[in-house]
Each structure stands twice: as C-alpha cells, then as structure tokens.
C-alpha cells in the first residue's frame, strides 16, 4: 500500500539544503506503484515534482503539490561479445552504478564518476563531465507516461540529447517518469583522456597505461579538489550552463578580453567557461548573505547555511546581470528552478 505523507520537509532531499515543505510526498519503490498511484485521479490533476537525489534543483518555496521520490532499485547486466548492456532502476545512486561497472571492468562510465544524483535523472540533462556525456553510453530508457499510464521505451534518437539538454527537459517536460535506464558499455576501454586535468593527474601519478579504475580515481580526485561536497556545504553543482556563442561574437569578445577561456563547439560555435566570466566580474568566493559562489569554482553557488531558495535565485540574477553588462553574454541557469 502506498504511503502518501503530508507536510514533509524537503531539506534532506535537496543538496542545496533549502528548507521547503512538500504538501504531499510519496516514495515509489516499484514501477507498478506508479500505476497504483495514478489510479486516483486527484494526483493526475495536481502539481507534481519528480525527485531523484535533488542535486540539480532549487526550491524557491514550499511545494504546493505532490512530490514523487523515485526509489526504484536494481541493476541487471548482460554481456554479448565485448559489449555490456546494463539496465539500472531509476532510483539507483548514479555513482553506485559507476562503481558497479568500474569494479567489473565495464568501460564507459568512468569519466562520469562521482556525479551526485540518481540514474533516473541522468538522461534529463544528459549529464556530462571530463569529455564524456551520458549520450555516449546511453542505449534507452523506460518511462511511465502520466497521461496514459503506459510504459514507453525511448531510444537515443528519441531523447534529442544536447549539451545539458534532452527532450525530457523540453518538448516532453512533465509528461514522463523515468523508471529505468539502459546503458551500452564495453569490455574494451576507449578512454577519453583529452581533458587537460586528467592528463596532468595521470602524469603526476606516473600512470602511462591507465585502467578503468585509474581513470575513475583520477576523475574523482579532480572533482573533490574543485567542487564543494553537498554533505558539508549546500550546492547543486554548476548553477549555470557554459554559454555557447557564434564565432563573430566570440571574435569581438576575444579582441577585448584576450584571456577569455573558450572551447570549440558544434557548427563553428564557441563555448565559453561561465566560471571564468563570473570570476572576472569579481564574484568568485564572494559571500552574499547566506549564499555566494564557491571559493574554488565561481560557477557553483552555495548555501552557507539557512539560505532560502529565493535568496539563491536573487543572487543568481545579480550574477546574470553583471556578466551581461561586462561581456554581453546572457547566462542560462542549468539548475531546475522549482516554484
Ligand atoms: P534531481 O535533482 O532530483 O532532479 C533533476 C531534474 O530531473 C528535475 O527536474 C526532476 O524532476 C527530474 N527527474 C529526476 N528524476 C527523474 C525521473 N526518474 N524521471 C523524470 N524526471 C526526473 N551534473 C552534470 O551533468 N555533470 C557534473 O559534473 C555534475 N556535477 C555535480 C556536482 C555536484 C557537487 C552537484 C551537487 C551536482 C552536480 N551535477 C552535475 C548535477 C547533478 O548531479 C545531475 O544533474 C544529476 O543527474 C541530478 O540527479 P538527481 O537524481 O539529483 O536529480
Ligand atoms: N574557470 C575560472 N574560474 C572559475 C571556474 C572556472 O576561470 O572560478 C575557468 C578555468 O579556466 C577552468 C575552466 O573555467 O579551466 C573550466 O572549469 P572546470 O574544468 O571546473 O569546468 P566547468 O566548465 O566550470 C563543466 C561542467 C561541470 C563538469 C566539468 C568537468 C557545465 C555547466 N559544467 O564545468 O559539470 O563537472 O565541466 O567536465 O558544463 C554540473 O553540471 O553541475 C557540473 C559540475
């Protein structure tokens, strides 16, 4: 029997550590429970938030609706020649899945080590780090369609993955609850070590022929040195996306700011490092009330204790304004804003 609780604090369910109350809260442990839940028409009409690890959202206020915490577990794997197909429940912890694969020598997820959150959320923003994105290893996912109560499988093409984007954040927003994700990995590693910091760290450790475990450990080490641990200081990782601009705008900016940190992007466009833009505006490590930016990474907004969602949001607007004033570049929030 499903347990629907009332007036539940979400403080321990979001890595920003923002204190907000959910009017209704339910935990889903099996996919069949979704059908059971939505048999009652009152939930279909209600405002809804699907929650994994709460590591990519900012709650602006109490949530006047139903929070569905997806806790569906289970990892199954099948090996065919050198390919490994892994299917994991949406409620599995992402990094547990990474470790499951690293220990067994299944290659593909190692660059995505230590990203917080759940497996089910991983396709939502096509998580990425250190030169690899989810779409590089994604096979398909299975999701509950709220409108019909049917389960539907989405393959890679259906998901319209982009940089921190997918169909689930855009045209399919709010229509599906992902219940499991299937990955296609390999017994033969094809390492992506192009990210400068990985190369350097491997060199420092005198590793010339890295194993999957080496790469995972190096990535984890780099992440810990840069990013604040949500269990000690509230945050949701990068608050903004790295902006992608046209070549012409970039040339004008580079003429003015010769040090501007940039990377080539699709179709001749240029990706800028938002952290650099924010740092140049003087925000790095700034404390503003209960919020601020992280001292080692200006792209990460933090909760120094007791910050409200509104406070963090207002601060993020200040950053957007000052980056726009100085560089003419409009930052977009990466974190999901929940109002
Ligand atoms: P939540 O925050 O719970 O949800 C995020 C969104 O997905 C919400 O809109 C929610 O409604 C939706 N959602 C969640 N589960 C489901 C589901 N089962 N079905 C449908 N919708 C769902 N991200 C990166 O890409 N790369 C990084 O390197 C990275 N580093 C981070 C470092 C830190 C310290 C932190 C705190 C965050 C970082 N993130 C990073 C962001 C975050 O880890 C990812 O976005 C992660 O996938 C969020 O998972 P979650 O389960 O916590 O999602
Ligand atoms: N930089 C600064 N000042 C800063 C921060 C960064 O000048 O305060 C410059 C530096 O030149 C640095 C460059 O920006 O070399 C890039 O910084 P970093 O390697 O830390 O990566 P990022 O672009 O800030 C992105 C992702 C991260 C991901 C890392 C590693 C986005 C929005 N963020 O950050 O993802 O872990 O690359 O691949 O794309 C997340 O999405 O939550 C997240 C943490």
Tell me what the structure shows.
This protein is α+β, with helices and mostly antiparallel strands and 339 residues long. The chain folds into 3 domains: 5-70, Uridine Diphospho-n-acetylenolpyruvylglucosamine Reductase, domain 2; 75-186, Uridine Diphospho-n-acetylenolpyruvylglucosamine Reductase, domain 3, CATH 3.30.465; 234-338, UDP-N-acetylenolpyruvoylglucosamine reductase, C-terminal domain (Uridine Diphospho-n-acetylenolpyruvylglucosamine Reductase, domain 1), CATH 3.90.78. Helix content is 26%, strand content 29%. It has 9 helices and 20 strands. The strands form 6 sheets. A 5-stranded antiparallel β-sheet has the order 6-7-12-10-11. A 4-stranded mixed β-sheet has the order 1-2-5-3, with no helix packed on it. Helix 5 packs across helix 6 (212-226). The two termini are 30 Å apart. The structure holds flavin-adenine dinucleotide and uridine-diphosphate-2(N-acetylglucosaminyl) butyric acid (EPU). Residues 15, 49-57, 70, 90, 115-118, 120-122, 124-125, 127-129, 177-178, 227, 230, 235-237, 336 line the site of flavin-adenine dinucleotide (FAD).
